[in-house]
Amino acid sequence: MTFLIDGLQYANWSERIFRQLRAGGVDAVHVTITYHETFRETVLNISRWNRWFEQFPDLIFQGFTAADVQTARDTGRTAIFLGAQNPSCIEDDIGLVEVLHRLGLRFMQLTYNNQSLLATGCYEATDTGLTRMGREVVAEMNRVGLVVDMSHSAERSTLDAIAHSTRPIAITHANPATWHPARRNKSPRVLQALAESGGMLGFSLYPHHLHGGSACALDDFCSAVARTADVMGVTHIGIGSDLCQDQPDSVVEWMRSGRWTKSVDFGEGSADAAGFPAMPDWFRDNRDFGNISEGLRRVGFSAEDVTAVMGGNWLRFFDASFTGQTEVLQSQRAAQ
User: Fold this and answer.
1) Cβ distance 10 to 173 under 8 Å?
2) Whose CB among 141, 154, 222, 303 lies 3.0–4.6 Å from 299's, allowing a Cys bridge?
3) Domain at 123, CATH number
């Protein structure tokens, strides 16, 4: 069966976008619910999502396990999996990892551009790798079934996370640096280590990380996916669109500056990056995923491989990642 799964979005959510998810046939999406928010603020964001789940039960529902993707397909809805793009939500308390997982958080980045308590972000001059707390938090995330996401992390920290994690990690929204040398895009060394460990790369459609930016051609993007499949193996790649639909430009300041600076941090290296860039004309919203499928076929992907990239690989990763180690052991014992 063919599934359509997006590895990350940060939209200004509304009924209109929920209906576009359904029009585009999106079975599941990992949504960012927090950047620099504290634990309490993150819980308030979850509460807001709970109200949307109550208001639009025919369109969306909260996903907790991979089985919920099948439920979404069977009921004509979209499963929403919650994630954090920074570890601010656990503050300095490792116990909050399990609490947030029980509330439905399924992904957490160890950094967002800057040095955090756990690891180094891709905009820091010096990358010291995982910190002492970082190693402990990764182990706890592995235990409860919370995916380690290194999309905005620096090289050494990303390699440390891959090596230290007992479960495959994800880079939910980034591209190969050999295709476009944005700071967040990943080196061949990182992509090789990610594939060898069983991890996943979600290809980003955010223009600052595309060759040619907003003018990037669909065939150029799909050819980059094909080249990466040759290097990593087609089973380790998917889509992580990083779609920021309907967000006002003011949100960029919160994403990049948070509360850590009094200045505006442009993040991408120039004042030109102060707001959201225009999306490529072949991917404006969730109704355009079909263009990517067609583009992948055009550059030589088989029907089976297109199915894998557009959702099958993420579904397999979800199935292996979202269940806690205790639950896995209990299931294995019950099967004996």
Assistant:
1) no
2) 222
3) 3.20.20.140
